[in-house]
Amino acid sequence: MSHPSPVDAGRPAPELAVRGTEPGAVTIGELAAGGCVLLLFVSEECPTSAMALRRLGSLCRDWEAAGLASAAVFEDPLEVAVRVARRLGWTGRVVSQEPPYQTSRAYGLVSVPTAVLVDRAGTIAGTVTGWDQPSLQALVASAGTLLGAPLTAPPAAQPLQKPGCSSKAALDQELAAAMSAPAGTDDIEEMFERGWTDGLPVVPPTPERVEAMLGGADGSESLGPVPPALGEATLARVAACAVLAGCRPAYFPVVVAAARAALDPAFNLRGQAVTTQPAGQLVVVNGPVREAIGLNSGIGALGPGFRANLTIGRALRLLVTLTGQGVPGKLDRATLGHMGKVGFCLAEDEEASPWPPLHAERGFRPDQSVVTVIGSDAPLSVSEHRSRTPEDLAHVLGWAAASAWSTNWWPLAEPQVFVICPEHAEMFRAAGWTKQRLRRFMFESVRKPAAELRRGETTPFVHAADPAALVPKWASPDAIVLVVAGGEAGRFSAVLGPCSGMGYEIVSREVVPVGR
Amino acid sequence: MAADYVSPIDERVAEPEPLAPAPASLRGSRAVLLDIRKNRGAEFLDRVETLLRAEGVATARVTKEIFSKPAALSVIHDIAARGGLVVEALAD
Predict the structure, then answer these.
(1) In the predicted model, is pLDDT for residue A5 greater than 60?
(2) What are the pLDDT digits (tens) for A297-325?
(3) Which residue, A311, A324, A359, A378, could crosslink A338 as a Cys pair with Cβ 3.0–4.6 Å?
(4) What ranges do the domains of chain A cover?
(5) Does the structure show a pLDDT above 70 at B3?
(6) Model confidence over A490-504: pLDDT tens digits?
(7) What's the pLDDT at A4?
């Protein structure tokens, strides 16, 4: 099979048949409009191409300012080209050609990398094949002459010369097709390139994985719009988020229940998704599903180590971030955020609790599996190993919340979660304290005179109160949410920061089968 | 060839709505000042209102229920009926 040699200097540059990262055609005329353009033909698999991209890549910006545009012309799919160019520090344009590599053929390419300098008139001013530093230096110098401005030359680092690899346009068709089949795409990296991530690696949502997640359910069924951008939460998109998060298909009914709860307008996810405060969405799971899918309510209940807890909470957050477009730094305006915004799922240890579980308090039967969503900031641990009475313990737990939201922001109207560890719960059990008694005790004991709350930010309630009046931390005992979880040893409970100013309600949804 | 994936994105909402063009001149126009009920937002609107009036702009004040939720349709209709421009006060 014969190929023409690279197009000679002095001949018109063939037009490009490539795809760029912006909509619309990429043309020689557009690229050379500033003065001239350096086309660098490359391929992902070629080490010499990588070397050329790395050594020339950092120069492109300065060249561009002087009138020399640069474009890396990949013989690879665009998503691969973008990833490789970014990895290697190429700062010029990136364009891609797909088989049969029409542009490479038009330029008579034999190998990559090949650098082609084209002047403003669209005439080829010079060509360098492979890595050849002296020749590239001369090519850049000739561009400088065309522009009337000196340009930074590529560095004279070893190796000065290195042969390239065969251009895919020069391969026979069968071999070219075999090589281009998977194209070396790194699917994990591709997820980052697509923005389908919360910053951590995700599981690519292939149709097979999403089908498995759906379990036969109709993927077009809609759960409603997802704030803040109101993308529609079809079951297929929810399943895609569950796959991305790393969920097993068995977790999907819990993810769907969490999504249904969070999308209830009463939850005001719209406000929560865009606020400057750090809060995310806490998912509390109750009922038999906890054991069925391996949710951890015991040791390390708020920490790492348990797939179901971490991935269910993450799936909900990915739904908000991707389908809802609540992307941090974009529509998500959280000043700091917190790690619970990656995913925050807690199972209640109903077996260690002396009290009715959260879902039973909210009107469900204890044998139902239920998801409850609560706007929540990060946990603050409360170490309390010395109390010998429930009153002392309740005092310490309650006052741990004194600075929640803000030191002087009393009373809090929104729900605030206390995660009571089993040893603390046992003390209340032994003393016969109900949940309602504990709430009432904390509500009555955590109070301050209004005069002490008037420094810095405070509430209209405090401003209006008599200076000597005692102001409670919470607007009502009902704002205190009690959930039991954690390891059987260790007296560490936790108070979670509230999500304030949202005028929202806690929402619960039963976990029901999806598909299958 | 890139693999096929199920997208979590609703492409219809991936691009934000563009802003309407700014008016060439304020003089003679009507502006609604929307108090979203953020702390001290009303004070900010007071200052803006003074400046707008000095520019010959007729102003009206509208308040929504809570800053963290979208305005009720009735508020939006009220704004549409009253003015050509809207200034929304965010403050803290």
Answers:
(1) no
(2) 999 999 999 999 999 999 999 999 999 99
(3) A378
(4) 19-180, 189-510
(5) no
(6) 999 999 999 999 999
(7) 44
For residue A411, whether the previous peptide bond is cis, meaning omega lies within 30 degrees of 0, is yes
| Residue of A180, A210, A327, A458 to mutate, testing the B interface (most B Cβ within 10 Å of its Cβ) | A210
Tell me the per-residue pLDDT of A173-214, one tens digit each, with 9 for 90 and over.
Answer: 777 766 665 544 689 999 998 999 999 999 999 999 999 999
Nearest CA in chain B to A187: B3
Using one digit for the tens of pLDDT, what is the confidence trace for A393-405? Answer: 999 999 999 999 9
> How many angstroms separate the CA atoms of A124 and A105, rounded?
16
Cis peptide before A207 (omega within 30 of 0): no
Q: Is the peptide bond before A422 cis (omega within 30 degrees of 0)?
A: no
The whole-angstrom separation of Cα A23 and Cα A107 is: 24
Q: Which residues contact A307 (CB under 8 A, 6 or more apart)?
A: A246, A248, A294
Contact criterion met (CB < 8 Å) for B8 and A229? no
Query: Smallest Cα–Cα separation from A13: which of A2, A27, A3?
Result: A27
Return the CATH superfamily for domain A19-180.
Glutaredoxin (3.40.30.10)
Q: How many helices (H) and strands (E) does chain B have?
A: 2, 3
A219 vs B contacts (CB less than 8 Å): 6
* B73: contact with A, CB 8 A cutoff: no
Q: Residue A310: what residue type?
A: L
From first CA to last CA, the distance across chain A in angstroms is 56
Q: Is-contact A190 A83, C-beta < 8 A?
A: yes
Using pLDDT thresholds of 50, 70 and 90, give the confidence band for residue A49: very high
Interface test with B, best of A84, A322, A331, A409 (most B CBs within 10 A): A322
Residues in chain B: 92
Look at B8 and A79 and tell me if their CB atoms are within 8 Å.
no
Instruction: Note whether A287 and A295 are within 8 A (CB).
Output: no
- Cβ contact, residue pair B3, A204, below 8 Å: yes
Radius of gyration of chain B (CA): 18
Closest CA relative to residue A59, chosen from A124, A122, A126, A143: A143
Q: Please, how many CA atoms are within 13 Å of residue A442, restricted to the half-sphere of its CB?
A: 30
In the numeric block, the tokens 């003089």 are attached to B27
- Interface confidence, given as ipTM, is 0.84
Q: Alpha carbon A50 to chain centroid distance?
A: 29
Contact A236 B6 (CB under 8 A): yes
The angle subtended at Cα A231 by Cα A413 and Cα A501, nearest 5°, is: 10
Question: Closest approach of chain A CAs to the CA of B70, in angstroms?
Answer: 8
